[in-house]
Amino acid sequence: MNTKQMEYILELARTGNFNRAAENLYISQPTLTYQIKLAEQEIRFRLFDRSGRGAALTPAGEQFVTTLQNVMTELRIAVEQGQNFAARFQENLRLVMPIRSALYFLPQALERFEQEHPGISVTPGFDWHRGIEAFLKGEYDICFAYQGDVRHLPDVQLHPLFDSKIYLVTRQDDPLAQKTRITEQDLADRTLMVGGPSQDPLRQVQRRVVEHTGCQYFNSESHDMSLTYVASQRGIVLSPGFLNDHTGAFAWIPFDCPETLPCVLCTHKEDRRTSVWQFVALLQELYAGQPDFPC
Q: How far apart are CA 295 and CA 293, in angstroms?
């Protein structure tokens, strides 16, 4: 079904009359009748009941038209946005990361980059589960990732960004939140959440804490689930600092361990565009200028 047929259906639904709808659409009545028939054959149900008094929507047609109106609205918005984009920008860089908090300085980078390169737009995307896969398929130009997940990928250029430290995440009213640093023994009588999407260095720390302290533990499937359990006092969790959204909803206390999670930006080796390298360099500069930032 094409957009013209969609417009025809909506106009006929609005007027309830083939002749009037055809006049409003500046087409002949036989053309409108034929196009409505083609659409009904494609979707395999009747949209309209025809009678000498005009055309009335069937129950299925009413549901279809309601959805179609929303589709056409979204399409119109998409076209307008595309036209505005085309008028303002000559190039678009696509960046993917697992979660918004992963790149704390991204808003500053976007603002500076647009000021310095007004004809280039950077569009961020967020995909925890398939961001790297989408990057490898060419859907994105730049990808934020834990280095261990991408270091062996072919045709990918890695740009070091920062080493993310490991933190204990608790409620703000938890006694451990008053500490400036957490040790293994601080967790001896607590319940620790483990597993989920944890990267190898974090899993090593989790295993060591459980083995050395004998603390209780259970598996959590995701970071959001872990935070929900922390909020409900079911447990506490060790997490890399790049997941901290810095809203103050939870306490993030540095954990005493040597492990860190090296985080990088990935680009495609064959992509030699100056704009890609300039944006990567800008993010590297922002992080290098804040060496004490808790990430």
A: 6
Q: At what angle do helices 18-25 and 29-43 cross, to 10 degrees?
A: 100
CB 235 within 8 A of CB 210: no
CA pair distance 294, 149, nearest whole angstrom: 22
- At 171, which amino acid appears? R
Residues 158 and 49 in one domain: no
Query: What is each CA distance from 154 to 150, 158, 199, 286, in whole angstroms?
Result: 9, 11, 21, 28
Instruction: Answer left, alpha or beta for residue 210, where phi above 0 means left and psi between -120 and 50 means alpha.
Output: alpha
Phi, psi torsion values for 7, nearest 5 degrees: -65, -40
Please write the tens of the pLDDT for every residue from 71-111: 999 999 888 878 877 776 788 999 999 999 999 999 999 99
The CATH number of residue 157's host domain is 3.40.190.10
Report the predicted TM-score, pTM, of the whole model to 2 decimal places: 0.73
Q: What residue type is 9 in one-letter code? A: I
Phi, psi of 190 (to 5 degrees): -110, 170
Total domains present in the chain = 3
The encoded tokens of residue 107 equal 């808003």
* Domain span at 175: 166-254
Q: Return the bridge partners of 191, or none.
A: 216
Nearest to 282 by CA among 115, 55, 42: 115
pLDDT single digits (tens) 206-246 = 999 999 999 999 999 899 999 999 999 999 999 999 999 99
**Domain end call among 56, 87, 118:** 87
